[in-house]
Design a protein that fits this description.
Number of strands: 7
Shape: globular
Number of domains: 1
CATH architecture: 3-Layer(aba) Sandwich
Radius of gyration: 17 Å
Structural class: alpha+beta
CATH superfamily: Class II aldolase/adducin N-terminal domain
Helix content: 25-40%
CATH class: Alpha Beta
Distance between the termini: 29 Å
Strand content: 5-15%
CATH topology: L-fuculose-1-phosphate Aldolase
Largest sheet: 7 strands, mixed
């Protein structure tokens, strides 16, 4: 995609995640890798008022934290940048304060293998990273630790984030994470889930490689 198209797609997905209830206000943020730069939503701009030129650009290498554009990048730029720098397979990051994922993050409850779709996130659980104040290096370090071997995590007392090889796939993962968070929350209300064994999740994860979940059908509903 061209850079103007990527900039517009970021805005479109921001508006879509608010319209769907995946996020509220300007609390979420999105970044996309484009060549040797990261394109990221600007800080505190309502999505309906956002225009492509407002999307900030930050170098993936070179001066850390420098940016270009008429608006400064999201206050959460640090973990977006660090994820894209440390995970070459990730080309997009979606961060939201979705309701059920945030409830679990407030309670510091990781999501176990209560459903086979947990395998979509790279392992047999979704971790909760340790709490740190928004926008800090400590938070970014905590996020990276929780993402070791995973493509998504909950952020303690904060929200959630999901990564993907494209923006569409990162958005799919964010929707799936909120869905499984909602299911796990309600399962806890009726006595708790029956957790699938690690070997089953490992088999599901290997099956996804041929099923095409990650590479061919990012927007497809569950099988």
């Amino acid at each position: 995609m061209s850079e103007p198209a990527i900039r517009q797609s970021i805005i479109d997905q921001c508006r879509a995640m608010n319209a769907s209830g995946l996020n509220q206000g300007t609390s979420g943020n999105i970044s996309v890798r484009h060549g040797d730069r990261m394109l990221i939503t600007p800080s505190a701009v309502p999505y309906d008022a956002m225009t492509p030129d407002m999307i900030a650009a930050m170098p993936l290498e070179g001066e850390y934290g420098s940016w270009e554009g008429p608006r400064k990048p999201s206050t959460e730029w640090r973990f977006h940048l660090d994820i894209l720098r440390s995970k070459p397979e990730a080309n997009a990051v979606v961060h939201t304060h979705s309701t059920y994922a945030t409830i679990l993050s407030i309670a510091h409850k990781p999501i176990p293998a209560c459903h086979y779709m947990i395998a979509a996130f790279g392992g047999d659980d979704v971790r909760v990273c340790d709490y740190a104040r928004y926008g800090t290096k400590e938070l970014s370090d905590n996020v990276l630790a929780a993402l070791e071997g995973r493509t998504a995590c909950l952020m303690a007392n904060h929200g959630m984030l999901a990564t993907g090889s494209s923006l569409e796939k990162a958005m799919w993962a964010a929707v799936e994470l909120e869905t499984i968070s909602r299911q796990y929350y309600h399962a806890l209300l009726i006595g708790g889930p029956v957790v699938l064994p690690a070997e089953e999740i490992d088999g599901v994860r290997k099956g996804f490689a041929s099923y095409g979940l990650q590479d061919e059908r990012p927007a497809t509903a569950r099988r």
